[in-house]
Amino acid sequence: MPSLMRFLGVLGVIAALGLGAVYSLATFVAPRTREMTVTIPSARLRPPPVAEVQASPPNPQTAGAEAGASGATAR
C-alpha cells in the first residue's frame, strides 16, 4: 500500500506542476493581436455542379427485380 500512495503522490505533484504552468502561462503571457487576411479561391466558395448519377435498370435475374421495377411490394 505504501508504494501505491507514493505513486499517487508523485502523480499529484506532476499534475500540480502542470496546472501551475498552465495557470502561469494564462496569467502572465499576453497574446499579440494583429489583423489577418485570408484569400479564398472562388472555386472553393462555389464548387462546380456535380453531374447526377443515373440509376442502372434492375437486373431481371435477381430476386425482387419485378417489385423494384413496378414499385409494388411483395408479400
Number of strands: 0
**Sheet of most strands:** none
What is the ordering of alpha helices and beta strands?
Answer: HHH
SS content category: mainly alpha
Mean pLDDT: 79
Unreliable spans are none
N-end to C-end Cα span: 68 Å
Our estimate of the beta-strand percent is under 5%
Rg to the nearest angstrom? 33 Å
Shape: flat
Number of helices: 3
How much helicity do the residues have? 40-55%
Features:
single chain, 75 residues, mainly alpha, 3 helices, flat
Describe the structure.
By secondary structure, the protein is an all-alpha fold. It contains three helices and no strands. It has helices at residues 2-28, 42-45, 65-70. The chain is flat and about 75 Å long.
Short summary:
With 75 residues, the protein is mainly alpha-helical. The protein contains three helices and no strands.
Layout of helices and strands:
Layout: H1 2-28, H2 42-45, H3 65-70
